[in-house]
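Posting for a labmate who doesn't have an account.
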Amino acid sequence: MGRKQAGIITDEVRELINEVARATASMAYIDGMGGNVNYFRAMESLLFNYKKLQTLVADYEGYTRVELQGKSKSIGSFSPSSGGNTHRTEDDILEELERDKVKAYHRTRARLEEIDRVISLFADRKEFHVVRLYYFGEDAQGEPRPADAPPYTWDDIAEELGGMGLVRDAKSARRWRNKIVNDMAVCMFGKPAAVAAGTFRKERASGRE
């Protein structure tokens, strides 16, 4: 077998991996904690990281690239199954790391596809304009904003959507955000999120009485 080359992961790709890991770590927490989860915040985390997740999954080579520390040709390790010490070459280590990276990539891609399916259910709703502006860093038409553009404030969002005849003020824009994110969380996380969303809406309704 030909020798594999250990490449360099760029700082940008490394940071993307770290950021998405932080976002998807909340998913593992959600899977195991049932009703003790703020599903609204978890959905927000996924939406905030959605564009980064797309960028990460689009770069298969960058995601699965392997780095090794040091120049050793072989590393000694103890293998209980073989009953003693074994020596693993750099190629052996690279192969194992590559397999792990590929598995991680496919898990991440599956997560993106799951989020994609939820987003597609809401993309035609009027409230989705808020998702574009607040979470995706896009303008109201869904076009990317300049990388150095400051994040929209709620007043900015209200002005953008007000010009389209959609909302009256920042309070209305935030209400749209609450509604669509809660609905998306129900689709993403199922019955526990539906219960949480129902409780949230009852509390808001009682607060207006």
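Reply:
Got it, the structure tokens are right above this. The two ends are 73 Å apart (CA to CA).
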